[in-house]
Amino acid sequence: MKVLSVVGARPQFVKAAPVSRALRQVAHEVLVHTGQHYDYEMSAIFFEELHIPAPDYDLEVGSGSHGWQTGQMLIRIEEVLLKEQPDWVLVYGDTNSTLAGALAAVKLHIPLAHVEAGLRSLNREMPEEHNRVLTDHAADLLLCPTQTAVDHLTREGVTRGVHLVGDVMYDAILYNIALAEQRSDALTRLGLSPGSYALATIHRPSNTDDPARLRAVLAALQSLASDYPVVFPAHPRTRRKLDELDFYTPSIKLIDPVGYLDMLVLERHARLILTDSGGVQKEAYFFAVPCLTLRRETEWVETVETGWNRLVGDDLRSIVRLACDFRPTGSPPPLFGDGHAAERIAALLKVES
Fold first, then answer.
1. What is the CATH number of the domain that holds 160?
2. Measured between alpha carbons, how far is 200 from 58 in angstroms, rounded to an integer?
3. Which of the residues are catalytic?
4. For a Cys staple, 203 with which of 3, 102, 197, 235, CB 3.0–4.6 Å?
5. What one-character DSSP code corresponds to residue 41?
6. From CA 286, how far away is CA 91, in angstroms rounded?
7. Are 160 and 232 contained in the same domain?
């Protein structure tokens, strides 16, 4: 069995690591990196730290508009598929790389498997939402992280090929957290102690492309920083927007993106996480760290329903109040599987071949 896996963005590298380990026990995997994230901090360091095999193909697509980027990926992935003739194409999540891989596969009549199938934010203004829906409705094997994801697909009439496997990001955390604690010096390097700081990540266009909204988010972070340190690893896209605003404040620890192991340690020991990232919301939940999501909605509704995540929405002035009042109790319920999602995915691909 030959499986061609398509990745291209930082969250997909994390998801692919445990699946690739399991898959290579039962199949020949061809790994294609689209180049959607391409610099060292957003790409190469993840391959190194997660011990992901070097890509068989690096398409080097790079940045561009959604249409240009997706089109370039589609052309180049199709060329690889015609050469490799895999039994399956495996895509992850909801990026332009996901959609391009899905379209290339179905147009060549190659079976398609989708990891993280069934997620829905129900916000059609998000490009990611269209990527999810289109990929799910094209896929032959839908690999769902939660029962909520299965339920979303059922409501859309998608029931064939649907499997509840668990969350591969949980697999990744269980596999890597001990190594992260051993190897990362992020806390020492930044002068932090456990439980004493907030961690912020902001990258979505809904927060960064509107200067007024971005300034409001930054003002809230500055207010928090008067009480305890706020660490802000800035995505390259966000950094450019900050430069356009001529933003600078010594009260916020604005740093370059960090590797996966450093990020795990920073997340695990934060007193609060503020983010617009789906993956970071989930990792906060795994580590039982309260999370404020700087969005109107989330695809990870379970984290909100269990009380460990709160949506800020448009009332950005509420961030400081929520940060002070938000103290979940107990432990987050185990809703994301048992840490063996990757093995289930590999087994399903083998059985369905």
1. 3.40.50.2000
2. 31
3. 203
4. 235
5. I
6. 23
7. no
Give CA–CA dist 319/315, Å, rounded.
8
User: Going by C-beta distance under 8 Å and a sequence separation of 6 or more, which residues neighbour residue 84?
Assistant: 2, 4, 30
Question: What range defines the domain where residue 314 resides?
Answer: 182-325
In this prediction, residue 62 carries a pLDDT of 74
Q: Give the other-Cβ count within 10 Å of 124's Cβ.
A: 9
SS3 89: strand
pLDDT, tens only, 67-125: 898 999 999 999 999 999 999 999 999 999 999 999 999 999 999 999 999 999 998 88
Gap between the Cα atoms of 102 and 89, Å rounded:
8
Let me know if 39 is exposed, middle or buried by CB neighbors in 10 A (0-12, 13-18, 19+): exposed
Nearest 5°: the CA angle 201, 49, 171 is 75
| Reduced DSSP (H G I as helix, E B as strand, rest coil) percent helix, strand, coil of the chain, to 5 | 50, 15, 35
**Are 38 and 125 within 8 A, CB to CB?**
no
CA distance 42 to 168: 19
Model pTM score = 0.91
Residue with tokens 């269990």: 306
For 54-70, the pLDDT digits (tens) are: 899 999 887 778 889 89
Record the tokens describing residue 167, joined without a space: 């969350």
Nearest to 30 by CA among 3, 54, 51, 12: 3
Contact of 111 with 105, CB cutoff 8 Å: yes
Regarding whether 224 and 110 lie in a shared domain, the answer is no
Cα–Cα distances (Å) from 8 to 144, 270, 340, in that order, read 20, 28, 23
